[in-house]
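fold-stage: in
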Amino acid sequence: MKYIIIGMGNFGAYLAMRLTEMGHEVIGVDNNENRTELIKDKVTHVVTLNATDPQAVKNLPARDTDVVIIAIGEDVGASILSTAIFKQLQAKRIIARAINSLHETVIRSIGVDEIIHPEEETADRLSKRLQMKGVLDSLQISDEYNIVEVKLPKRYVGMKVSEADIRKEFYLNILTVIKMEDKTNLLGIKTKEKRVIGVITPEYTLEEGDLLLLFGKIKNIQEFLNLDE
């Protein structure tokens, strides 16, 4: 897919680099040459231009891009103007970062396809993870359901998945198992790296140190987490 990302601050630059790493074509745009210079070797293309200038923005392939992301994080005026310009250019899909509630109201009225709040979403995800003891990571699906990454309780070590029967006891589905493996980086320092097993069969034997990726109701996840207490 093709992306244009406006604003190469911390959020925009990281997003541009990650999408590039995933094999997508990304154009990173910022009016600060120092910022574009820093990431020029890590993003497909980088352009130094003023995204509030309609004539300058017309040089970007807005209509041929799958998603335009307005990632400007400080200048509300620049974000609004840039969003309006891409809307006028009939970009296929526009995702805009909201800086505050008033800003969100304005860009929503312009007609963006999606509004994101990176800081709030990160804080919300972290708070939900911290409130459940034993959760290493989490992804809330709804108010009732969650996907969590947890350590395997000791009582299940050495059991086959069919023997543990976590689904029957706690109404939780094991989506996969993650193993932490030792890796040595270029500096010779040993680090831990995650390896996802894939689809788990009933015959898979659970081992000490395994991490389970579970899906189910939050109340049932909490009951499962209390096993080692």
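fold-stage: in (second)
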Amino acid sequence: MNLRELVYGLYSRRVERRLDVAQGPKHIGVILDGNRRWAKAASSTAEQGHQAGADKIAELLGWCEETGVEVVTLWLLSTDNFDRPSAELVPLLGIIEDAVAGLAATGRWRVHHVGTMDLLPDRTQAVLKEAEQDTHNVAGLLVNVAVGYGGRQEIADAVRSLLYEHAGRGTSIEDLAEILDVEHISEHLYTRGQPDPDLVIRTSGEQRLSGFMLWQSAHSEYYFCEVFWPAFRKVDFLRALRDYAARHRRYGA
């Protein structure tokens, strides 16, 4: 172990000791950003960058378990990503499939897909469905894998599902308009039945949500980290939790 690693380990343990886990977030959303830029800086290919990012996920989930987090939502592939060249998109989908299958195979975490299935290739759909089925009764951390996800698309899908449900009941548009409130929408989101994220972390230095969990993050705290996702360390995670704990959450203006 070199001096830098020793100092990093000591600092990480110091930050961890000072955290009050009881006051920490229960649901964390993570925008895993910076794989391609990390790869470029390391003179690697985009595919290698995506693979390095996928390899980091299990570490993050382990840190979440240690700090009392109960739900993690990982944004792995947005609807906008389908505009990427097939030479990059196809390997990326394969890496995501392997990552999701690997999470399920551990038997430690309950995997749940959030996103639009219709946009995904048959193989990706099959992997996501199998991971959900295989981990349905797992009592561990709930891991939402956002694949083919867009915040606006989620809200549109929720409204569409709500309309179909009430049409099946024979409810008129006028009657629905009279009773419609925010809870009706929430009950049809991809994350229905789950708590909203307390904290949203984005790596790579970008300070925007890009449509991530638009509805659910209305009262979330945000933490923007400069480091690229494949280089995200436990101390970076602990700093995010420390920053969250230092804030006074306000619901409203």
